[in-house]
Amino acid sequence: MLNPVVERITQALEERSKQRRDAYLSTLMQAAEQGRNTAHGCSNLAHVMAAQSDEQRLIMRQGGAAHIAIISSYNDMLSAHAPLKDYPDQLKAALYRYGASAQFASGVPAMCDGVTQGTAGMQLSLFSRDLIAQATAVGLSHAVFDGALYLGVCDKIVPGLLIGALHFGHLPAVFVPAGPMRSGLSNPEKAAVRERYAAGNATRDELLEAELAAYHEPGTCTFYGTANTNQLLMEALGLHVPGSAFVSPGSKLRHALTDEAARLLIENTTQGGHYLPLGEQINAKALINGAVAILSSGGSTNHTLHLPAIARAAGYELLWEDLAALSKVVPLLAHVYPSGVADVNQFHAAGGVGWLFAQLLDAGLMHSDVYTIAGRGLDRYTREPYLQTGRLCWRNIAISPLEKDILRPVIAPFATHSGLHMVTGNLGRAVIKTSAVQERYWSIKAPARVFDCEADALEAYDKGRLNGDLIMVVRFQGPAANGMPELHKLMPILANLQAKGQKVALVTDGRLSGASGKVLAAIHLTPEAAKGGPLSRVQDGDILEIDAKHDCLQLHLAEQEFAQRPTVQAPRNATAGYGLQLFAAQRRSVGPADQGASFLIED
């Protein structure tokens, strides 16, 4: 039986969103009825076929066969996306074997947050998600396609591709992953070197050697951050070939799974007999499944931004309250770094996605009756793929996980609460992830140390000015201020202070993403300081309290006195270059964090 809270939240999502969802589905049906653009004349179609081979032209001219778009975020700047280089040719060859034609319709931008950490380039990171959605729409705007294959992996790329794809929701969609790199230096060892470097106890050469040992070949980074949470989400939404999220790049199994993506897409087109438009597939049940999967695995806090934005693109209004309510009944079943010491390769070897979903389905925490690209029913995603004499097959996974320090059953979880909290109070509302934080650090009441940028906080640490118990406040980091950058450089210094015996925490309207670690952090605070939120009136020495157990974020100051304080204005962004000026319109129009921090304005 379905868990009553999961059922209630799903029903509430449906009811709250009925008008918006009905309008979305009406648009989708109109687009489906139109099919390929019938306004295309011979000249239009000649442009489409001009660069195609004779074989492809023949398929397209004869009609009756699916014509498929390929949208890719390939570049060799990102290790996670480098394996995608040869995917278009492989997919075209597979589609051709099944009698279909295909074209590479669009490349979308893909930046690496790991490269831009601590630099002004990070201010473009979250905005890139919506830009990717727009670039996806440009690629599909030619209206000559019957379905699309989406190639992407990392932080903002997969959500951006999905948002863009949902605006062409009459087209079937399959998302094609690349897989994680092999395990190198363990994530705890890497984190320890970072903390030693921040404390001045490791050289830059030592730090670089550790980083190179961790990030050492093509493939996704092996910690459970936003990129790998994306891959779990695509499985939960039924948009991957089952079990394909964490299969290594370059392997024979990965090659077979990529070919299977092409076959399944054809099956789901109007020419394939099992027409499955993406916009109908991503319904309330699918969205709740995605949320539960992320919560149970200790996934990235970035998805408290991405899930509402994805839901909105499909005609739904998903709230932080929905995620918080689910979090209380969804247990934490996985310990993958930063929540544990294992990486995603070890998670996959221990049973991974298939074992996790089987547990959640058996406990009534996920909807089983959903449509997936592989057919009706999420149970298709509880098995693992393998090759038998070169043929792709699936098999059941052992009832017990192979490693109980990585995966645990619902009846004996790591925690009964998944670890995602929404805290509220007189400063607004924020998100906390406690799955990697020891319970003794879940609450704190201490003086505020206020900074208007990450660099000032780092300078204070370097000069030994962060003494005693404190709650670090880093404001003017929200979407309207500077694009809501991730503030990862704060984590090693706060971890060092905590290790010395100080009680510390962070409050910010910025982000930390999936790599947020062992320090209590209230992030994504909204309303943000740049919009005149209460955070803009907090001063050094104010007593703040964060209590994750009781979902509280409070400034202890008389209401009248706080109201009379002047609002501090956002500092001028003096950074030159990086193209920041090109995104001024996005900063002006972007919505709040709890609605997805999107600059895409929808009716």
Automatic annotation (TrEMBL):
<dbReference type="GO" id="GO:0004456">
    <property type="term" value="F:phosphogluconate dehydratase activity"/>
</dbReference>
<dbReference type="InterPro" id="IPR037237">
    <property type="entry name" value="IlvD/EDD_N"/>
</dbReference>
<dbReference type="InterPro" id="IPR056740">
    <property type="entry name" value="ILV_EDD_C"/>
</dbReference>
<dbReference type="InterPro" id="IPR042096">
    <property type="entry name" value="Dihydro-acid_dehy_C"/>
</dbReference>
<dbReference type="Pfam" id="PF24877">
    <property type="entry name" value="ILV_EDD_C"/>
</dbReference>
<keyword id="KW-0456">Lyase</keyword>
<dbReference type="InterPro" id="IPR004786">
    <property type="entry name" value="6-phosphgluc_deHydtase"/>
</dbReference>
<keyword id="KW-0408">Iron</keyword>
<keyword id="KW-0411">Iron-sulfur</keyword>
<dbReference type="Pfam" id="PF00920">
    <property type="entry name" value="ILVD_EDD_N"/>
</dbReference>
<protein>
    <recommendedName>
        <fullName>Phosphogluconate dehydratase</fullName>
        <ecNumber>4.2.1.12</ecNumber>
    </recommendedName>
</protein>
<feature type="domain" description="Dihydroxy-acid/6-phosphogluconate dehydratase C-terminal">
    <location>
        <begin position="405"/>
        <end position="597"/>
    </location>
</feature>
<keyword id="KW-0119">Carbohydrate metabolism</keyword>
<feature type="domain" description="Dihydroxy-acid/6-phosphogluconate dehydratase N-terminal">
    <location>
        <begin position="67"/>
        <end position="379"/>
    </location>
</feature>
<keyword id="KW-0004">4Fe-4S</keyword>
<keyword id="KW-0311">Gluconate utilization</keyword>
<dbReference type="InterPro" id="IPR020558">
    <property type="entry name" value="DiOHA_6PGluconate_deHydtase_CS"/>
</dbReference>
<comment type="similarity">
    <text>Belongs to the IlvD/Edd family.</text>
</comment>
<dbReference type="InterPro" id="IPR000581">
    <property type="entry name" value="ILV_EDD_N"/>
</dbReference>
<keyword id="KW-0479">Metal-binding</keyword>
